[in-house]
Specification:
By secondary structure, the protein is of the alpha/beta class. The chain is built from 11 helices and 6 strands. It folds into 2 domains: 146 residues, Rossmann fold, CATH 3.40.50; 70 residues, DNA polymerase, domain 1 (Orthogonal Bundle). It is globular. It starts with a strand and ends with a helix.
Length: 227
Amino acid sequence: MPIELVVFDMAGTTVKDENKVTGTFSAALKAYGYSVPDDVINPLMGYKKIVAITKMLQQYEPDASKITAELINNIHEEFVKLMIGYYQQAPFLEALPNAEETLIALRAAGVKVGINTGFSKDIAETIVERLNWRQKGVFDYLIGSDEVAEGRPAPDMIKVLMALAGVSDPTNVAKVGDTEVDVREGQSAGCRFVIGVTTGAFKRSELEPYRPTHIIDDIAEVLTIIR
């Protein structure tokens, strides 16, 4: 059976990141007294942001009693505020090379295109609006990690997108992303192709241990893989 749905990540996969997500995470944590190095933050890109914050606090807050739901939510709210402000105002916000063209070509070929992200839906919508992706016809469906019970690496977001697309068999689905949890999400969903891209947070050597079906340097290669 042909691939009916391709699910793409956002930052680092289809949207140029410039390491601003990491920098914004760092700023949100610092606002609450936590100094976390970029090399600790980067591997957590792709996770549901509430989960990523919790993981960082567990590592950098020695008093576990201070890691409360209120603290986690406050840091997340700071992150969302800073991230939306950045995406609203950044003069250079742009899609990664060949991203828009690839997604549009898939849709023209009758393949549904879903976008999922570790961001909350409000951040994702800000990006989509700035890039005019609805007007350009870049995707069919968009989901944020706050719209499901479990974010990556759980398959919840992919399952929602499959339901929206009317796809029942995960072997007719491909997942494309730039992080460990993107790969594990695709694997946990049972996707036929789980494609890692080297345009974001993880290098080829960092993706290889997670055994995606493919690792590519140019998102346009997705067209060749699924055909």
